[in-house]
Amino acid sequence: MEQEMSLPQYKSTTLHSIIVEVAAADVGEIPPTLSRALHALVLKWLAIANPAIAETIHASQNSPLTISGLLGNRRRGGVRVGDYFYFRIGLLDGSLIASLMQGFEQSETQTLVLADFPFVLRNMYALPGTHHLAGAADYALLFNPPQVLYELELHFLSPTSFKQNKSVQTFPLPELVFNSLHRRWNVFAPSEYHLPTCEWSALVTAYELKTYALKMEGGTEVGAQGWVRYKFNESEIARIATILANFAFFAGVGRKTAMGMGQTQLIMQNFKTQNFKNPVTRVMR
Amino acid sequence: MALYHCTLTLHDNVFFATREMGILYETEKYLHNWGLSFALFTINYIPQLYRIQGELAQKPTYLDASAEQNLLHLNQAGIYVFPAQPINWSYQINTFKAAQVAYYGKSKQFGDKGAEKNYPINYGRAKELAVGSQYRTYIIAPENIKIPHWIRLGKWAAKIKVETIQIPDRLIETKSGNYTCSHPLNPLDLPNNTRLLLYNRVVMPPVSLVSQAQLHGEYLSTKKEEWQAFKSTLNIQQNQQLPQEINLPTGIFYGAGNVVAAV
Q1: Strand order in the sheet with B123-129
Q2: How far is the C-alpha of A135 from the C-alpha of B51, rounded, in Å?
Q3: Which residues of chain B does A136 touch, with a Cβ-Cβ cutoff of 8 Å?
Q4: Cβ separation of B26 and A108 shorter than 8 Å?
Q5: Contact A23 B21 (CB under 8 A)
Q6: Which of A92, A143, A255, B88 fits a 20 to 30 Å CA distance from B224?
Q7: Rounded CA gap, B128 and B24, in Å?
Q8: Is the peptide bond between B206 and the residue preceding it cis, with omega within 30 degrees of 0?
Q9: At what angle do helices A235-251 and A174-188 cross, to 10 degrees?
Q10: Which residue did the predictor score with more confidence, A48 or B116?
Q11: Looking at residue A270, what is its pLDDT?
C-alpha cells in the first residue's frame, strides 16, 4: 500500500463548501461529466498558490477535497452562450481555503477551458447562506451536535458506490456509508475529536434509489442516487452517526468523491432541498 | 470626515462589458467603485482630459500616479467611494449590430471555418442593467463636499440619480475585531491592517470585488439604538433606503493595499 501523505503543517479545524459559478462562453454540447477537468482545475488553483500542497493532495490516498460534477440546467439542444453552471468544492482541511482562493484570484481573468469547452468565471461563494450549497463548519461544532438523530435520512445527490470485497457495491448499506465517513473523519479531524470504532447495528427503514452511470474518462462508474433512511437504536451509535451524517455534506460518501461521486446531504425533517441535476444516464432500475 | 449613504437609481440602462462570452456581453450586477468614483468626482477632483495621445491613450490609469487622470487625486481630497450593492435590479438584453468596417475585425463569411450562417456574423447581445434598478453605496468624504445629484455611468453614459443622506458622526463608533461587512468591497483598497477572512468573490474587471466578507480589523459601526432613533426621524422613503446596520472598514482608500499607491 502506498505511503499516506498528509498536510500536518497546514491542518485547520474548519471545513468549507465553496461554490464556483461559471458561464458558458460558447454554444454546443458540454461533455456529460467533467470530473477530471474540474479536479485538475482545483488542483491547478492550489498549485498556483502552493505547488507543494497540490502535489501532496495529488499523491494522497485520502484527498481533503470533494468536488461535484458541473451542475446547472443543460438545454436539450445544447448549451447557449451565457448559460450558468456551478460546481461545489468541499474542503476537509480549512487551511486549504486561503491557497484555493489565492489560486482562483490569480487565474480568474484567464479563459477557463474544461474538456475543450470555454467558460468564464462569474462568482465564488464561500459564505454560508449566500448559496444553497455553500457552507462552513468546524470539527468541534460537528462533534457536538445539538440533537442526536436516531433516524437519519441521507440524500445521495450524485452516483454513490463503495468498495466491498474488491468489488463495487452500489447499495448504501449502513456499515459501508458510515465506515466510509468514519475513516475520513478520523483522517482529517483533530485527534481530540477522533471517533471510536463502531459496530453499525443500523436498519434501513426506507429508501428510494436508482442506479446511474457516471461517464468518466477511464470508463463508466455506476452508483446509487436517491435517499435512504437509517434507524439507530443505541444512543452512542446514533450520536456518532449524527456527527458523520453532518460531516457527509463536506466529505461526500464512498468512492471517487473528488470526481463528482458520493455528493451527500443530510435531510432534516420538514426540510427539502433543491436536488442536484446531474448529467448522468440511468442504466438500471 | 463624514460618511454619506447614497441611493443610486438607474434612469437609463447601464452597460459594462464585465464578461464577454462569444457575442454576449454581460454586465455584472455590482457597480465597481473605481467606475463610480470617476462618474461622481471627475472635473471637480479628478482632471478631465480633453485629449490623450500616445501610449497613455490605451492605458487605464486608475492608480498610476504618473498619469494625470487617476484616483489618487481622491486620496488627497480625502474621498473614498465604496462599490455599489444592488438593492433591486433587473436586466434587459439588447441585440446590436456592428458596422461592416475594415478595422472592426474579420467577420465570419459563409464558408469560413466556424461559420454556421450564410451571412456575416456581425451582431452582439448586450445584457444591461435595466432602468429602475436601485443601488446603495457609501462615500467617505469631507463635510463640505458636494455630491452630484445626477451622474453618468457605463459605456452608454447612462443617467443615474443619486440621493444622499449624511450620517451624523454621533451615530458611528469605531470598533476593532472580527466583523461581517454586508457591503461589497474592493480588496485592493483595504488597508494592510485589515485581514479578509472569508468572502464571496465577484469576478469583474478591473479588480474583482468581494461581498459578504468576514474581516478582521478596525471598522466603523452604527450604534444600534441611536441608529434606529435617527432612522425614525427620516421620511418613509429615506427610512427604507437605509440598512439595519452599517459595518465598514476604516482606513480604506484607493490602492491602500498597494504601497506604491499610498499617499
Answers
A1: B19-21, B24-26, B123-129, B91-97
A2: 50
A3: 198
A4: no
A5: yes
A6: B88
A7: 11
A8: yes
A9: 70
A10: A48
A11: 47
Distance from CA of B53 to the nearest CA of A (A): 27
Q: Look at residue B105 in the predicted model and tell me its pLDDT.
A: 52
Q: Would residue A262 be called left, alpha or beta, if left means φ above 0 and alpha means ψ between -120 and 50 degrees?
A: left
A129 → chain B, closest CA residue: B212
Task: Pick from B93, B183, B202, B203 the residue to mutate for testing the A interface (most A CBs within 10 Å).
Answer: B203
Q: How many CA atoms lie within 13 A of A151 on its CB side?
A: 7
In this prediction, residue A60 carries a pLDDT of 86
pLDDT digits (tens, 9 = 90+) for B159-190: 999 999 999 999 999 999 999 999 999 999 99
Cβ within 8 Å, pair A123-B201:
yes
Q: By the CB < 8 Å criterion, does A81 face chain B?
A: yes
pLDDT in tens, A21-74: 999 998 888 888 888 899 999 999 999 999 999 999 988 888 999 999 999 988
With CA atoms as reference, report the closest residue to B259 among B35, B45, B63, B83: B63
For chain B, say whether A127 makes contact (Cβ under 8 Å). Answer: yes
Q: What is the ipTM of this complex?
A: 0.86
Neighbours of B97 (CB within 10 A): 8
- Residue A275 clears pLDDT 70, i.e. is over it: no
Residues 6+ positions from A264 with CB-CB distance below 8 Å: A154, A155, A156, A157, A160, A248, A249, A252, A253
Whether A216 and A33 have beta carbons less than 8 Å apart is answered as yes
What pLDDT does B43 receive? 87
Q: Which amino acid is located at B68 in the chain?
A: E
Question: How many Å apart are CA A29 and CA A80, to the nearest integer?
Answer: 9
Cβ-based interface (< 8 Å): residues of B facing A: 19-24, 26, 127, 198-203, 205, 208, 211-212, 214
Instruction: Give the distance, in angstroms, between the CA of residue A238 and the centroid of all CA atoms in the same chain.
Output: 23
Q: Which residue would you say has higher pLDDT here, A165 or A274? A: A165
Indicate whether this model's pTM tops 0.95.
no
